[in-house]
């Protein structure tokens, strides 16, 4: 009897309309999984590209059926992304990461993730300021340029992981992935600094303050994640949960992992870093204290959750790429839009090169043995593998440039459409290149 | 870098406030699981009661800290309940139900669920009209009385399942549980009928129309669930998903089950019935076509999901029971409020007795062997076991009596507070009784 009352109310208040998009979205997710599975043999596709393609097609269909009014089904919500979709992805990454490799390369990862992101952000910000000021794009302020630097320095670890193989290239995998996570902590500090420091009065203590702030955030986020993970292990071991029920163990693991993420949000820490370390600790301690069936369940349930969240994001990005409103604003100046996208792509390439090669050189200086060093070929791979910009960049661009829905501001619309272009282009090109490389090997 | 931009925005738009309730809720869910586990030995408590108690305590604390303003953290949303919490509970019930028992007693279940709910709704509606009209409770119309009948005929299958044991009393379990699910379909039709039929012009064809409508809804909902379940089995078997990945199988099962629920919503069918049959078919066919690890994962993941959703509901009901606004409205007439609650409790008892005993008698007439018949002791258990009113009743009462937040209407406030009283009372009393009975047996 539950649903009828709801339905009646829904029909009266026309809330039933929310059922249609959910249906379509779930059906499309199923379609992506089935198509992704069917195309797996071909090796020139994966779920991400499939989801992007399916999203684009759906966008076209909706665009045609609604008479060019909208390609949207759901309004993009940062809450949806940062509260529901991102935590399982990052947690699962920590849960499944090869811990030995990760900790062996800890210093190099820190160097790449922290210093590297700083260099990249600075390069892109300076480059963007230089070029865009010349191009006379209005409505962008200093804060926007710095944001652009941060947005396009966010490596898409989600997508990167699908290109690199943890078993074939463990060193590269842990470097690129670890960098992506640390990346986040750096950016938190960057923005804290940008927002809190008066940009017109930069003095000598700014750098020190910045460093202190960064260390505080990184260390406290890590500690929070580790403590929550250890606490879950302690509770489950001490209370011997498996005695009664597997479900309780699994529920407690999921809830405590999520709690670590939300606690970090509460204390304004880096939630992504926290949940990542929570995942590492849980897979190292908690996981060994639960029953055999809990172990199998958590391993696959977390992976599935993360898998669905990823497809969801790509599906959304694909559908949103066709949002007619944004393209209309920029359609009177297609040249500018293409120029901006090209410049940003160029800056991403340069910004990444600006830290991968020098920092690899530095890292190699500290290694004694030849096999520990990062060869020039591997450096190129690291540079190339981290070029993809994905869902995180999209979410940030939406956040920065759609304040109270102001996409009709010319500068903002251009930045959004350019971000979409860069994301689609980098993802597709990287994927193609990866597959060509693979076929050459065969 | 993800979270900082969001945080900045959040701080500016004071959205950060939503992080606090999520934190508290997740922490309380963890606490409920741990306490429930610790008290399991005592046997006089379970997670539901724990969650209710924890919710009540939290409500008191919030009430005191906010200076008596509010005990709310989250605004109750029917979407949250019907789109996110209920589907996993019902799906899991179908997935884990003992199919042999269920189908052996299919006719009896149908009799109880369909005819029984009708009798119960009629009894309660007539009784409520009779008593409440005398008590001069304003603002209740004919539709409200019929709604009251339906609200208090909704057996709380969630709670009932925790009292009956599937292994110890398989016949009773399948009867009571099956009844609870079919119950839903009946109520859908009831409300369709109430809304669509002009209540002032009831003629002879009304009953026929009603019956046809019911059969249509029941059959089409079942078919939708069965077809979706079979389709998932076919896809997974035919495409041999396990070859590549366990995660894809699990994801596809979850998504297709959810799709069946949402499709039923889309076509105005009984979504609960659909997802229940989808669960049965999936556990019977799909489950046997997936890999061993998928089997373990789905079994425990579904149970965990359902488990967390149940705790969530009880926690919410506990917290909401103290909502000061509703009690304020009724505090000027405590006598009326107590009378209404007592009358409703009495009507629930009578309404249930009015169909359990006669229908058991009818059912026994069709059985040849003595062991197939429902003994008088079992009839009492069925009557007693289905008395609990729970989260579904709450959700429906909110739906019916808080239209656009009008709880300050006297009649509506009384109905909400009475529902809370009946739910708390029936749950706690049933639980106590159950445990006393158990201790006597020892």
Describe this structure in words.
Two copies of one chain form a homodimer. Chain A is mainly α. Chain A has a single domain (about 80-440), classed as Na+/H+ antiporter like fold (Up-down Bundle). Helix content of chain A is about 80%, strand content about 0%. Chain A is built from 18 helices and no strands. The model of chain A is unreliable at about 1-15 (pLDDT under 50). At the A-B interface, helix 1, helix 2, helix 4, helix 7 and helix 9 of A face helix 1, helix 2, helix 4, helix 7 and helix 9 of B.
Can I get a quick summary?
The structure is a homodimer of 442-residue chains. Chain A has 442 residues and is an all-alpha fold.
SSE inventory with pairings:
Two copies of one chain form a homodimer.
Chain A: H1 2-12, H2 19-39, H3 47-65, H4 78-96, H5 99-104, H6 106-134, H7 142-151, H8 157-163, H9 170-196, H10 205-238, H11 246-266, H12 271-289, H13 292-320, H14 324-331, H15 334-365, H16 376-385, H17 391-401, H18 410-441
Structural class label of chain A? mainly alpha
| CATH architect. name of chain A | Up-down Bundle
Q: Report the span from N to C terminus of chain A.
A: 60 Å
Shape of chain A: globular
- In terms of quaternary structure, the protein is homodimer
Mean pLDDT of chain A: 77
Number of separate helices of chain A: 18
Order of helices and strands of chain A: HHHHHHHHHHHHHHHHHH
Helical fraction of chain A equals over 70%
Strand content of chain A: under 5%
CATH topology of chain A: Na+/H+ antiporter like fold
Total E-strand runs of chain A:
0
Write down the CATH class of chain A. Mainly Alpha
Q: Over all CA atoms, what is the radius of gyration of chain A?
A: 23 Å
Major sheet details of chain A: none
The low-confidence runs of chain A, each spanning 5 or more residues with pLDDT under 50, are 1-15
């Amino acid at each position: 009897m539950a649903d009828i009352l709801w339905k009646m109310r829904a029909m009266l208040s026309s809330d039933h309309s929310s059922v249609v998009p959910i249906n379509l979205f779930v059906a499309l997710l199923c379609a992506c999984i089935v198509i992704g599975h069917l195309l797996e043999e071909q090796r020139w596709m994966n779920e991400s590209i499939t989801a992007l393609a399916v999203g684009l097609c759906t966008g076209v269909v909706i665009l045609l059926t609604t008479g060019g009014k909208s390609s949207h089904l759901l309004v993009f919500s940062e809450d949806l992304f940062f509260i529901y979709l991102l935590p399982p992805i990052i947690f699962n990454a920590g849960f499944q990461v090869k811990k030995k490799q990760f900790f062996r390369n800890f210093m190099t990862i820190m160097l790449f993730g922290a210093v590297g992101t700083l260099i990249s952000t600075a390069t892109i910000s300076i480059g963007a300021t230089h070029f865009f000021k010349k191009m006379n794009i209005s409505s962008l302020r200093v804060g926007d340029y710095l944001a652009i630097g941060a947005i396009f320095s966010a490596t898409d670890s989600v997508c990167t992981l699908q290109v690199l193989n943890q078993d074939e290239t463990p060193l590269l995998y842990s470097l690129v992935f670890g960098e992506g996570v640390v990346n986040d902590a750096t950016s938190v500090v960057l923005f804290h600094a940008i927002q809190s420091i008066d940009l017109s009065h930069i003095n000598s203590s700014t750098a020190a303050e910045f460093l202190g702030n960064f260390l505080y955030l990184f260390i406290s986020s890590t500690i929070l994640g580790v403590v929550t993970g250890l606490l879950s292990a302690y509770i489950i071991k001490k209370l011997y949960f498996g005695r009664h029920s597997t479900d309780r163990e699994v529920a407690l693991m999921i809830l405590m992992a999520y709690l670590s993420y939300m606690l970090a949000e509460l204390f304004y820490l880096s939630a992504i870093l926290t949940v990542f370390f929570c995942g590492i600790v849980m897979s190292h301690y908690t996981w060994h204290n639960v029953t055999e069936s809990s172990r199998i369940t958590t391993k696959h349930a977390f992976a599935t959750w993360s898998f669905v969240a990823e497809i969801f994001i790509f599906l959304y990005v694909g559908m949103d790429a066709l949002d007619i409103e944004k393209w209309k604003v920029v359609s009177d100046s297609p040249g500018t839009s293409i120029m901006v996208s090209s410049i940003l792509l160029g800056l991403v390439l340069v910004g990444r090169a600006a830290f991968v090669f020098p920092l690899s050189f530095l890292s190699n200086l500290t290694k004694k043995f030849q096999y520990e060093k990062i060869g020039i070929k591997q450096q190129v791979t690291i540079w190339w593998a981290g070029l993809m910009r994905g869902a995180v960049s999209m979410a940030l661009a939406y956040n920065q440039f759609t304040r109270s829905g102001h996409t009709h501001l010319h500068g903002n619309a251009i930045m959004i459409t350019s971000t979409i272009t860069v994301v689609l282009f980098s993802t597709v090109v990287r994927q193609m290149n990866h597959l060509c490389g693979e076929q050459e090997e065969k």
